[in-house]
């Protein structure tokens, strides 16, 4: 009994290790041929792998978040392009002044309530700024392109995660079938042992051992069923299915060729790496971010250059105290009397004569409040200004910014090299794992064949009372363990090969 429990624990541990290995596969280095297709509808029948991938790509939240991030970078790029355009702002104010205040138009002190309006239009255009505006555009364009590659990477990761969960579910289903066949065999063995016990051919302990083995096999079925339910839940969560669709979720189980049905798996690792490095979005994104960091250096160095701007404004205003002189249309003549001086008496008083002089007429006028639009027209003022700023000393901010930009460029270059190194290591690891899984399958298949004969021989001896129940259960459990190894090696090889196919740009299909 202890031996049986130990075997069961080993099978559960091995199945768990395979699940962890599949989910920890280098899913980040796979290329997908799927584009931005419309939202896929849930199929009515069993789900194929392609249908599961299409649906996940259309409904997964991580992919949507990557898309929103790219849209944000696009908005930043648009804003940086708009920075090349001149700015234009319109301003208007309305003010009431009470008591003694300065008239904003006549600049005289007046003791009255004055309502005034000021209107202005201001525009500014940067003529030169050390090429910072154009370098900002180029940097933001590279960042936007990198974010598009991030979307592709998120889609690739999701596609391989779905494939991993899909194959894990198929593996669990096959393990259930294998364990159910063991249960059927154990039930038949119990029935035979009961007959032999009644006939007196075997001892009662044989029946107890057979019943113990049956209970162990039934427990294995329950364990495999639980693993199947977990794998199914993982896949449903990746697809982001609602409750009704998840309740009826089933996968299509295609006929998969055995690993030993083909020649030993061989692959040109260098060619696969070059193909993957030229097509995988994460490699391209890393290279784009290196270029973006280099533009960041040029952008920071632009702070050393002078800045030249053109500024223009138009202002006008209105005041309720504003007046204008208006002619009344009347005129007044001036009459001046004529006096005569005695030349012989220069210091005497002049004598009024009977003559008079009529002066020119003077036009009459009065001051009236000026109209609103008349004042706006009369008070227009214009300004044109060139502003030149030459940086001399600003707390070493520009120099520090350049140094930080250089460090950032070096960091991004190292990330790009690390991405390529990780890709090469992932390809090599996936290839070694695929070869090992193929060889393990072949060995497990031969082991199953040998243990099948051994188990049949043990069953015959057990039925004839020549073998005790413990040894018989050990032989049967050895066969179960070998069969489990064979199935798991098969699916491990299939997944690793699909990962390598993805590296080579092939579609992800079963």
UniProtKB/TrEMBL annotation:
It holds the Pfam family OEP. Residues 427-454 form a coiled coil. It is found in: Cell outer membrane. Residues 1-30 form the signal peptide. Its main location: membrane. InterPro entries: OMP_efflux, TAT_signal, TolC-like. Gene3D superfamilies: Outer membrane efflux proteins (OEP). Belongs to the outer membrane factor (OMF) (TC 1.B.17) family. This is TolC family protein. The lineage of its organism: Bacteria, Pseudomonadati, Bacteroidota, Cytophagia, Cytophagales.
């Amino acid at each position: 009994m202890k031996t049986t429990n130990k075997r069961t624990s080993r099978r559960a541990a091995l199945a768990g290790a395979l699940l962890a290995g599949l989910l920890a596969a280098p899913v980040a280095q796979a290329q997908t041929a799927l584009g931005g297709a419309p939202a896929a509808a849930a199929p009515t029948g069993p789900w194929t792998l392609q249908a599961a991938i299409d649906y996940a790509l259309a409904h997964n939240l991580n992919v949507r978040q990557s898309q929103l991030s790219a849209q944000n970078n696009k908005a930043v790029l648009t804003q940086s392009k708009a920075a090349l355009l001149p700015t234009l702002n319109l301003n208007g104010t309305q003010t009431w002044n009470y008591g003694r205040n300065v008239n904003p138009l006549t600049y005289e002190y007046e003791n009255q309530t004055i309502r005034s309006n000021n209107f202005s239009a201001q525009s500014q255009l940067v003529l030169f700024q050390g090429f910072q505006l154009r370098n900002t555009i180029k940097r933001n364009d590279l960042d936007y392109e990198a974010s598009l590659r991030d979307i592709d990477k998120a889609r690739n990761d999701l596609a391989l995660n779905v494939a991993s969960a899909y194959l894990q579910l198929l593996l669990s289903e096959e393990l259930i079938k294998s364990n159910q066949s063991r249960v059927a065999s154990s039930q038949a063995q119990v029935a035979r042992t009961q007959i032999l016990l009644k006939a007196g051919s075997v001892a009662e302990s044989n029946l107890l051992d057979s019943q113990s083995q049956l209970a162990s096999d039934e427990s294995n079925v329950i364990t495999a069923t639980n693993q199947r339910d977990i794998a199914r839940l993982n896949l449903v969560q990746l697809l982001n299915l609602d409750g009704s669709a998840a309740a009826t979720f089933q996968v299509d189980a295609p006929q998969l060729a055995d690993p030993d049905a083909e020649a030993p798996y061989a692959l040109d690792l260098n060619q696969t790496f070059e193909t993957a490095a030229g097509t995988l979005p994460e490699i391209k994104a890393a290279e784009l971010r290196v270029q973006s960091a280099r533009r960041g250096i040029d952008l920071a160095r632009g702070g050393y250059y002078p800045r030249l701007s053109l500024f223009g404004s138009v202002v006008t205003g209105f005041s309720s105290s504003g007046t204008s002189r208006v002619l009344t249309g009347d005129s007044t003549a001036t009459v001046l009397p004529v006096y005569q001086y005695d030349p012989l008496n220069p210091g005497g008083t002049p004598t009024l004569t009977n003559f008079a002089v009529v002066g020119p007429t003077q036009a009459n006028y009065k001051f009236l409040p000026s109209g609103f639009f008349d004042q706006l027209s009369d008070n227009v003022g214009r300004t044109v200004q060139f502003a030149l700023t030459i940086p001399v000393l600003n707390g070493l901010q520009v120099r520090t910014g350049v140094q930080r930009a250089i460090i950032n460029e070096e960091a991004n270059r190292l990330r790009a090299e690390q991405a390529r190194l990780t890709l090469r290591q992932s390809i090599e690891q996936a290839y070694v794992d695929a070869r090992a899984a193929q060889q393990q399958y072949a060995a497990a298949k031969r082991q199953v064949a040998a243990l099948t004969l051994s188990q049949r021989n043990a069953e015959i001896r057990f039925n004839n009372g020549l073998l005790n129940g413990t040894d018989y259960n050990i032989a049967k459990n050895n066969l179960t363990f070998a069969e489990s190894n064979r199935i798991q090696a098969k699916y491990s090889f299939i997944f690793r090969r699909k990962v390598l196919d993805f590296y080579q740009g092939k579609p992800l299909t079963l």
